[in-house]
Amino acid sequence: MHTAGKDSSSSQPEYDLRSLVPLKSSALSLFRSHGRLSSCAAPDVVELSLHRTILSGFRAFCSSKGVCGRGPAGGDSTLGETKVLFCKGVGLGGGIELVVVVNLSLRKCVPCNRKDLSPITEGNASVLKPQVPEWELFNDGGVMKLRRKWKVKNFLLGLEFFKIVADLAESEGHHPDLHLVGWNNVVIEIWTHACGGLTENDFILAAKIDKLPFESYLRRKVND
Ligand SMILES: C[C@H](O)[C@H](O)[C@H]1CNC2=NC(N)=NC(=O)C2=N1
User: Fold this and answer.
1) Residue 166 CB less than 6 A away from ligand 1
2) Domains and CATH numbers, the chain
3) DSSP 3-state assignment of 118?
4) Residue nearest to atom 17 of ligand 1 (CA)
5) In terms of Cα–Cα distance, which of 188, 106, 204, 114 is closest to 145?
6) What ipTM score was computed for the predicted complex, to two decimals?
7) With CB atoms 3.0 to 4.6 Å apart as the test, which of 64, 146, 152, 187 could cross-link to 158 if both were Cys?
């Protein structure tokens, strides 16, 4: 666990992720006593925010650059399946947000008729989107959706593809919109009808679709 370093925000050291993740549990208790702990649809996505009662130890802990830990893309670091995506030091007396996200494809969709299911925030969407890089976010008449396209070898394999996606959707209790256009163009769109927008369920389903064994259905790319 980190001891509180000096509080200058100029040359904050990069923090080794390993000392960050163990802190999560003690941070939970500390943040719970000092701030709002809101867990999103799944317990493994925990967004902590510490209000004005910030402790210098945490201020020193999180660089003012809004980046903690080492990772391929700035603040994106991975330890096993746990990603610490960022902790945002918002300066003296401000709050700190520590977002720890477990790999989407390991999570489970929640029933869409839950009272606490709400559309995902832009911030959380930007945190989850990097885990489904092949998908695009698009606005369909005011409804935000995820979409991915594939070219399959033939019409029947397109239907085969739909079948394995359908089995996954049934097991998750969360369903995509399936399109097979011009005999070999598969388009899958995902959104949460119950709240007319995107929820974490949609990102979980997209991540799980990406793990399906559909390579053999696909037409080889021209430059292959
Ligand atoms: C109770 C059950 O969760 C709901 O009927 C589910 C079924 N599948 C669903 N799939 C999608 N994409 N959106 C929904 O709102 C939805 N609702």
Assistant:
1) no
2) 25-59+81-102 (no CATH), 122-210 (3.30.1360.20)
3) coil
4) 112
5) 188
6) 0.97
7) 152
